[in-house]
Write a structure and sequence with these properties.
The complex is a heterodimer of chains A (112) and B (574). With 112 residues, chain A is α+β, with helices and mostly antiparallel strands. Chain A has helices at 3-21, 26-36, 48-57, 81-111; strands at residues 23-24, 61-67, 73-79. Chain B has 574 residues and is an alpha+beta fold. Classes of the chains: A alpha+beta (112), B alpha+beta (574).
């Protein structure tokens, strides 16, 4: 899979995870990603944060520091309206891509 | 190496590649928290923690990705902002250097000037607000851009390119007529340039430093990155903004100078003996054409009492600021410009702008009780030609083509039109016919013509019954009554030899009144002196045996004409 598609996919999955979580801090988000077991989305854990910062700069995600139940101050991320509509757009794009790829590959197989 | 030490070393490697301290702090804290959570969970499962480098990835890569999350700002944006910043700063500097707001010579200031000072201070408030605003945005974008590229933002690194970007504005301001920059405060050209450069270059750095200090030590700005990214995206030149701004600037610039050149040619043809005079006058004429083109904005500025030479840079800034308007308004509407970007500038603007716009501008209301002739208007009509009516409309009732003073001798008057450095010598007889007989260069006139003319003859002039005397002053002619500056004493009735010249219906004084009289021909030239010298009136006086004013009704005044002048005066003293 090309870098562009992977990058777009990582962003979309991250936004979807945040959407599912409602909100979450970095490690919490990573654990949710692990639980969903996305094999294609393997990345070093340190790069999660720059990715979140980038999404935040684009207005898809917002963050705020506050005290966690453990008493520790954590930065919580959650999806914005803009992020939600972007996620929906990406979803439909990937669904269309998936459908067309599936169709194209099956046609290819037949032609072979 | 323990895992703790390994983590510290890893974070150190990350920090050293992130110039933005706030970003580095944030990433470090989140990575630390992440590490602690991970270690806790791994320990619970009975496993050994993984080395930070293996878990988080190459620190150079992580820090580079973090840097890239900051806004990337194209160079044209920075250049545009720098030029705007330089123009605004240059304008402020110009106002100070010209002494437009000098309050040090209070002795010489009339009430009219005092009100002008108030307006100028408010204008400065506005400009400072705009300047702070542009400077803050410029600095913030530049800092983010440098941080995003992973480069260290040094003060010198900012000053040099920004100073160069300010060069166009420096050229604009240094091209102003010499007298605008030097005359009011007498600063020599070298000092003026030094002040200018220090002001522009020095002040370029102030918003930068303040912005950096704020971003490092100020309260956390949650949405700052979002705002910056938005601004950087919106400020990227697009076709509409670029086209609009370019058309406006070209219209102002080209229209002004082309018209000036045409006028120069016309003057050269009409006065073949002095073709270069006309050419060198083109700047002044260009200023008038510019006012014509600038329409309602210029009219507004003129009503506010902003001096003509300042109109050009103000409008230039206004036109070029269109790059900033759209994104800023949108950000403000969304309440996203939260902290350091505009709070301070908005404060300045919200205070100064309404006052600037709605402050009434008091002015003298002189009711002439004798036949007067607006000589400055006549002179300017002759010089500016058919465009005069347009110019006049935008300038209300003021003659702005020059500043006038007048001196007299037995044969005539020396009328100096200072703006542009020209003068007219007008024999009294010809003056009574309102003709302009001679034009020349002021520098030559010092040698050839100025001798023999006495400035400010005031024999027989009274104000509300008190004699007006000329008193010494280092740089201009000041008149006084009872030892006090004439300007501070609101004067209602101005008389000459018991004859009522004018009634002043306002509560303002006449300012630095300047009078020159030629008793032989019964003519007085009148203007308001050094601080409001744009109007020059010719007053034709009846001879001494004329009926005194107190016995005249208004309808009788019009028939009190000056005596017929039957002999041509002697040649001027050369």
């Amino acid at each position: 899979m090309s870098n562009d598609i992977t990058k777009g996919a990582i962003e979309a999955v991250l936004l979807q995870t945040l959407h599912n979580l409602g909100e979450g801090y970095g490690y919490q988000i990573l654990r949710a990603l692990r639980e969903e077991d996305h094999e294609i989305l393997t990345f070093r854990e340190g790069t999660l944060y720059p990715l979140l910062y980038r999404l935040e700069a684009r207005g898809f995600v917002t963050s705020k520091e506050r005290e966690a139940p453990s008493g520790k101050t954590r930065r919580y991320y959650h999806l914005t309206k803009k992020g939600t509509s972007y996620l929906e757009k990406r979803r439909s794009q990937f669904a269309k891509l998936s459908k067309e790829l599936h169709s194209a590959l099956r046609l290819s197989r037949v032609s072979l | 190496m323990s895992h703790r030490n390994a983590l510290e070393a890893y974070l150190h490697d990350i920090r050293k590649n992130i110039p933005n301290k706030r970003l580095a702090d944030r990433l470090e804290k989140e990575l630390k928290d992440h590490w602690e959570d991970e270690t806790y969970e791994t320990t619970l499962q009975g496993d050994l923690p993984i080395e930070p480098r293996n878990r988080f990835g190459d620190p150079t890569l992580v820090s580079m990705l973090a840097n890239l999350s900051l806004a990337y700002v194209p160079f044209p944006i920075l250049l545009t902002l720098a030029i705007l910043f330089g123009m605004t700063g240059g304008l402020l500097t110009l106002m100070f250097v010209t002494g437009a707001v000098s309050m040090t010579d209070l002795d010489a200031l009339g009430l009219t000037k005092m009100t002008r000072i108030l307006e100028m201070l408010l204008l400065i408030g506005f400009l400072v607000g705009l300047w702070t605003y542009i400077g803050t945005i410029l600095s913030t974008l530049w800092l983010h851009d440098m941080d995003g590229r992973g480069r260290r933002a040094t003060f010198l690194g900012f000053l040099v390119p920004m100073g160069l970007a300010c060069l166009p504005s420096i050229l604009v301001f240094t091209s102003f007529p010499t007298h605008v920059l030097s005359e009011p405060v007498g600063i020599d050209a070298g000092t003026r340039l030094i002040i200018f450069f220090i002001s522009v270059l020095g002040t370029v750095g102030v918003p930068l430093l303040l912005t950096r200090v704020w971003t490092v030590y100020g309260p956390l700005v949650e949405r700052e990155t979002v705002d910056i990214a938005f601004l950087a995206k919106r400020l990227r030149p697009n076709f509409l903004q670029t086209a609009t701004t370019t058309v406006i600037l070209l219209a102002f610039g080209a229209g002004t100078w082309v018209a000036g050149a045409i006028k120069s040619g016309a003057l050269a043809i009409s006065d073949p003996n002095h073709p270069f005079l006309a050419l060198s006058q083109s700047w002044q004429f260009a200023r008038f054409v510019f006012l014509f083109l600038s329409g309602l904005v210029a009219r507004l500025l003129a009503i506010l009492g902003i001096p003509g030479p300042l109109v050009f840079p103000i409008l230039f800034i206004a036109a070029a600021s269109m790059f900033l308007v759209f994104p800023t308004v949108r950000l403000m509407r969304q309440r996203r410009l939260s902290t350091n970007l505009v709070l301070l500038p908005i404060f300045f603007l919200s205070v100064s702008l309404p006052i600037l716009l709605f402050l009434p501008s008091p002015s003298l209301k002189i009711d002439w009780r004798i036949p007067v002739f607006p000589l400055s208007e006549r002179l300017e009509r002759k010089q500016v030609g058919p465009l005069y009516s347009s110019v006049k409309y935008f300038q209300e009732d003021e003659g702005w083509y020059g500043e006038y003073d007048a001196s007299a001798n037995a044969n005539g008057f020396l009328v100096r039109q200072n703006l542009g450095g020209f003068y007219q010598i007008v024999p009294a007889e010809d003056l009574s016919k309102t003709g302009i007989m001679f034009q020349g260069n002021a520098e030559k006139s010092n040698e050839r013509f100025f001798d023999g003319f006495l400035s400010g003859l005031t024999d027989g002039v009274q104000c509300d019954g008190k004699t007006v005397l000329r008193v010494p002053h280092p740089d201009q002619v000041i008149y006084a009554m009872d030892g006090e500056s004439f300007a501070y004493l609101p004067c209602r009735e101005l008389t000459w030899n018991g004859r009522l010249l004018a009634i002043n219906d306002s509560n303002l004084g006449f300012g630095g009144l300047l009078l020159s009289q030629n008793r032989e021909h019964g003519i007085i030239l009148f203007n308001r002196g050094p601080y409001d010298p744009h109007e020059l009136f010719l007053i034709r006086m009846p001879q001494e045996n004329a009926v005194h004013t107190e016995n005249l009704r208004k309808k009788e005044i019009n028939i009190a004409l000056p005596p017929k002048i039957s002999t041509r005066p002697e040649p001027l003293n050369r």
